[in-house]
Amino acid sequence: MKTAAMTAVYRSRTVSGLFALVALVAGVLAMTPRSVAAQTPAKAPTAIGISVPASAQLGQSILLQARLVDARGTGIPGVDVQFTSPATFLNTSGDMVIADAMTDSHGVAAAQYEVRRTGKLTVNAVFAGSDRYAPAKTSAPLAVSGDRQLYVQDAGVKIPGLNATSTQQTSGWPHWVLSGWPIAAVLLTVWSLYGVAVFFISQIVGAGEQSGEGVP
């Protein structure tokens, strides 16, 4: 009788222990996401504004400005802001970085950009975010007109002193030494010697032919 009673009590305790263990595991699993979320603080929200001229000429250098602020409207200093513009290259489209700048004490980032494309462009101001602040992005249109040639091909060979100007270098050598005239003088001397040699060879050949005619 005692053995049966003890066995029943043991089984009851075992079942109760299993239920308690399952409840404990379920409680730990339920609390784990909350603990992880509590350890990862949310990033502070940000807002960014952009200032771009409404229009520009091709090849013109324009000023791009952006201001990054927090939720209270206070400027965020010392962070990088990128200015981008949509572009397509080899059938691949994406945003191309055209300038970047660091925000000052008022949260203002400013950069110069030389316009290289015509048409209606879009300029973006992008803050990628940080460990403390959330990312932000805004856009503004830019109309570019003009047909100015931005690239000039430099064909031919330039020889200093002949078809290109040369300035005196910091080495202190005279201007005439660094110009192309010594090279031209050497070439003229070489060609003169070559002409003299040809002349004497022709004289020797002519003399030989004459002396050969007098021999029977």
Structural features, described:
A 5-stranded mixed sheet has the order 2-8-7-4-5, with no helix packed on it. Strands 1-3-6 form a 3-stranded antiparallel sheet, with no helix packed on it. It has 216 residues and is an alpha+beta fold. The longest helix has 38 residues, at 2-39. It is elongated and about 125 Å long. It folds into 3 domains: 1-40; 46-145, Immunoglobulin-like; 155-210. The protein has 3 helices and 8 strands, in the order H-E-E-E-E-E-E-E-E-H-H. The chain starts with a helix and ends with a helix.
Concise summary:
The protein is an alpha+beta fold and 216 residues long.
Shape: elongated
- CATH third-level topology of the largest domain: Immunoglobulin-like
Indicate the percent of residues in helices.
25-40%
Beta-strand fraction estimate: 25-35%
Q: How far is it from the N-terminal to the C-terminal residue, by CA?
A: 160 Å
Count of strand segments? 8
- Main sheet overview: 5 strands, mixed
Contiguous helical run count: 3
The CATH architecture of the largest domain can be given as Sandwich
CATH superfamily of the largest domain: SoxY domain
Q: Indicate the mean pLDDT.
A: 76
CATH class of the largest domain: Mainly Beta
What's the order of the H and E elements? HEEEEEEEEHH
The count of domains is 3
Name the poorly predicted regions: 166-171
